[in-house]
User: Fold Adenylate kinase from Hymenobacter persicinus.
Amino acid sequence: MLNIVLFGPPGAGKGTQSQKLIARYNLVHLSTGDLLRSQISQGTELGLRAKKLMDEGLLVPDEVVIGMIESQLASNTTAAGFIFDGFPRTVPQARSLDALTQRYDTGVSCMVALEVDEEELVKRLLERGKTSGRPDDQNEEKIRKRVTVYNTETAQVAGYYAEQQKFHSLNGIGAIEDIFGQICQIIDQHQPATSAAASPAAATDEVKA
Ligand SMILES: Nc1ncnc2c1ncn2[C@@H]1O[C@H](COP(=O)(O)OP(=O)(O)O)[C@@H](O)[C@H]1O
Ligand SMILES: [Mg+2]
Assistant:
């Protein structure tokens, strides 16, 4: 299995790259932000609690997002692997993700972090806010608050994966296709030989060879 953690501040391009990666590697995309927004639109109790925090640019409690990931993993047991987007955001979440993925497989394959400076993030998110309908994208102050929360609470998750030699970072400013190519190069170094057939491109290469 290929379990990829896609990391980076809000607006770094995680969602954009995830869409391309799920097609290339046949993975299931698990975005805790999307899962929470779906709870909000369904008007569940969890959604109501989460909305208050998300609107303020704050993190939702660890046990809530860990529980959502746990149930998603349990309901996708035949998947070739997962892209975790927006999760883990704290070290306790990272520890839980190890434990959860190890139930099914060998754990997290690697983390890829997209680096983008704050001014570019603000610019992108204000632009996304024009069409996303996301309340947390609507004003600059909230956006900067989320970047600060990322820098203070989330950035240390990178250290957790660096200790395990699973951390990679790249410049998230540039053409979407170029960034995608660089992410694929990193993933291919971590891809177990036995699951290479899960990738359509790799399968084609094998046939040619
Ligand atoms: N490489 C890029 N260059 C310019 N804009 C980008 C790039 N990648 C993503 N974007 C845009 O930036 C915004 C945030 O991207 P998104 O994928 O939603 O980020 P995240 O999921 O990390 O918050 C979107 O409006 C997206 O279209
Ligand atoms: Mg996103």
Notes: Residues 14-15, 31, 33, 85-86 surround magnesium ion (ligand 2) (CB under 6 Å).
